[in-house]
Amino acid sequence: MSRSVQSARPALWLDKPYYSLHAYCRHTFDEKLYKIALNAGMTCPNRDGLLDTRGCIFCSAGGSGEFAVNTEGRSIAQQIRCGIDLFQGKRTGTRFIAYFQAFTNTYAPVSRLRMLFTQALEAPQIAGISIATRPDCLPEEVLTLLTDLRQTFPGKFIWLELGLQTVHPQTAAYIRRGYPLSCFTDAVHRLHLRRLPVIVHTILGLPGENRQHIYETICFLNTLPVFGVKLQLLHVLEGTDLAADYRAGMFRLPDQECYTDLVIGALERLSPNIVVHRITGDGPKDLLIAPKWSLHKRNVLNRIHQEMRRRDTWQGNMRRRTGLCRKAGKEPYETGIVHPL
């Protein structure tokens, strides 16, 4: 590690040139926290007919819940116990994060949500819960419930994970996100007022977006009270409408070298106060069509870390104090042309 990076980055980042979730947990909880992916049996307004029946264009039939523990006939409490058992052979801490991952996890009656979240928070080894949901599925009664639960379990945290993916309306329409940017912004501010931390999901490599589009999404997040971000590599999964477009040649995916450059550029523009929860992604091996190089996750992470050190750069290194980032850097990267809607 060069002296300039050592002096520029806070000591709490530990061994990485960005503010990782690992570093946050080490300093906040004195240990690493592993996530246990859960399936609460939810659905989504993009699937049940309220907005659409097809889901987001990239979303698998499992609603991103393929990595949840075996859920058939099991309560949340049972899923947590099974999930903890899976980590018995690993060198971990003593506590875990209960991650409500599959589909939209506030899209249910408040009475059911209270029962599900309470089961998770009552588990002794759970440090807190992280709830994946949509900004258009956060009515006031749900926020009141989450506020009540935070007060009932003062020693545990409640995080909300919102899938923004992009700030650009044409891309949002193509991926069938189903809500305007104003809805997302409003949700973030409402959650912030309730002291409920927000983790934002973004996707790098969406069809029709170039390097500048990606950086504008990142810089937009700097203007909001955001706790964390996930930088997700676009995966093409079997059984999705995105797969059909990919096979038809409507867009291309970045190779590993290009993705490494995109991630570094995004991190350089991201506020150093935002915790980075992910810089790649996990595509289910039996569903993943492309990019196959992403299956070697350790290699992907190592390449990113090594390249940041080689460039002597770090999170926030190119952040602009006001407005959007205008410097795209290097030659334009183009993922393809969005087909007519």
List the helices and strands and how they pair.
Elements: H1 3-8, H2 21-29, E1 34-38, H3 76-86, E2 96-100, H4 110-122, E3 126-133, H5 140-152, E4 157-165, H6 169-174, H7 181-193, E5 198-204, H8 211-221, E6 228-233, E7 236-237, H9 241-247, H10 256-269, E8 275-278, E9 288-290, H11 297-311
Parallel strand pairs: 1-2, 2-3, 3-4, 4-5, 5-6, 6-8
Antiparallel strand pairs: 7-9
Helix pairs in contact: 4-5, 8-10, 10-11
Sum up the structure in keywords.
single chain; 341 residues; alpha/beta; 7-stranded parallel β-sheet; two-stranded antiparallel sheet; 11 helices; 9 strands; disordered C terminus
Give the termini distance in whole angstroms: 48 Å
Averaged pLDDT, please?
A: 88
| N-to-C SSE string, H for helix and E for strand | HHEHEHEHEHHEHEEHHEEH
Tally of contiguous helical segments: 11
Strand content: 5-15%
